Amino acid sequence: MSAGDQGRADGEASAWTAPFTNAARYYDALYTRERDYPAQAARVAAAARELCPGAQTLLDVACGTGLHLEHLAREFRCEGLDASEPMLEIARARNPGLTFHVGDLRRFDTARRYDVVTCLFSSITYAMDVPALRGTLRTFARHLVPGGACIVEPGIPFDAWVDEPVGHVRHADLPELAVAMVDRATRRGREVTREVAYAAATPAGLDQVLERHRFALFTGGEYIEAFQQAGFQVRHDPQGLDPARGLYAGNLAGSGPAGS
Structure pTM? Predict the structure, then answer.
């Protein structure tokens, strides 16, 4: 490799940013049209009430910009947790008065227990492998009161994943923001690398962001086993918030919520 080639390679490598950092400000514009957040929050709340009728407190793990919490907070005393501080800045502005934590979904500790723990929009796939998936569910269990509810929206199951040579395009045209996103996912075994490019125009000028995400594919049996090993009685709702993913809802062994 020539010095010029090495320079280009280093430049390309340095251009990639961590997921949901520099592009956090574009997230809501691109995704709010795809998902009915009020309806999804109502469905999650109903599942939580079914499992834990007296539930009062809720922690949303990998809460992102707080779009679900905006609606869940009308029924529960909510907190949120996410690994991305830029996403949490938006969540705090959207949900003033709520408590938010920066943390890794696999090994966080808020020093509190809740009646309900949720983890939505396939964020659980960032656990990366089966041992970490099991550990993540144990982390969720440690943050629940006995009898508490855990609701997880999984990723597309391993056996349902379809490799695509070209990814997808999303775009949004708002009064002071025009943004487009293209992505491409490649799979090796159960690990998927998703490369995402954003191009945006605002009154301040043009912006380009490159992100690289890595996540894992799990089977339905692996999700069930991880729940059970963490002490949950679990069921799978195939409709869920998205029929391509479904929803896992677990009840932690023990008596009802303690009114935390």
Answer: 0.91
